[in-house]
Design a protein that fits this description.
about 250 residues; alpha+beta; ten-stranded antiparallel beta sheet; about 25% helix
């Protein structure tokens, strides 16, 4: 009738159409043997998941780190409390004994002066020694720095006091607008009042050391403000006025 013969009844040499399976038994195909192993889905899924052991290790590490940080903060807090209760530290005290100015000259484009300051430094602590390892001094006018220098290092035993000398000098041209305004104001005060107010400030790299075990390093900042210098006529020489506050502010 024109239909193709049943499968397997084609004459010898007959070419079967593409995709045509000759005597293929679909019922005997072993699908389970061809399935990928379970590890395939674990390693090739949306993302690799850590094992329970790995999660436990990460949790233990985080817990240990947190406990360590808490112990560290507790140690620092306890040390600070012990330090304040036992040692009772106090900042050093500074008092200006004298301040003299020489060669003072304030012009429109230049400024010159030299300062000699004598101070008394006192250690009020009874259990802590003070070592002033590096001292940088500054002279200001109306919050405008005029000159800086270095003073000699020194130390203070418990309850002791000592003298301190610092010398500063400048002879320079005025370049910036702020310096020009400061020099103009100084010239006006010098001419009209015969007195000029300066500020002596110091930055002191200091070691606080107890007689036993404790040591701390800090920067002590000293502010000797509104030091009024009265000049003798127009000689350019002056000294600290009697009504000037000579006590300095100290910050650590």
């Amino acid at each position: 009738m024109g239909y193709p013969p049943p499968m397997g009844q084609y004459p010898p040499g007959y070419q079967y159409p593409p995709g045509y399976h000759y005597n293929y038994n679909y019922n005997n195909y072993n699908y389970a043997a061809q399935a990928p192993p379970a590890a395939y889905y674990y390693n090739h899924g949306a993302g690799a998941y850590p094992t329970q052991e790995e999660m436990n290790a990460a949790a233990n590490f985080a817990r240990g780190f947190l406990i360590g940080m808490m112990l560290l903060f507790f140690f620092i807090f306890a040390s600070t409390i012990l330090f304040w209760v036992v040692l009772r530290p106090q900042v050093p005290e500074f008092h200006v004994e004298s301040l003299t100015v020489a060669n003072f000259e304030a012009k429109e484009s230049s400024f010159a002066a030299s300062w000699d300051a004598n101070l008394t430094a006192r250690n009020p602590n009874t259990k802590i020694r003070l070592y002033f390892n590096q001292i940088e001094t500054f002279m200001f006018y109306d919050d405008q720095p005029l000159v800086s220098s270095y003073a000699n290092p020194f130390s203070l035993e418990t309850g002791a006091a000592t003298g301190m000398v610092t010398k500063l000098a400048t002879n320079s041209s005025v370049d910036e607008e702020a310096e020009d305004d400061a020099v103009e104001k100084m010239a006006e005060e010098y001419g009209s009042r015969g007195a000029v107010e300066f500020s002596l400030r110091m930055a002191m790299w200091t070691t606080f050391k107890s007689e036993s075990w404790w040591t701390r390093r800090s920067t002590v900042r000293v502010f000797c403000e509104e030091l009024k210098v009265a000049f003798v006529g127009k000689t350019g020489k002056g000294s600290l006025a009697p009504d000037t506050n000579r006590e300095c502010l100290v910050f650590v």
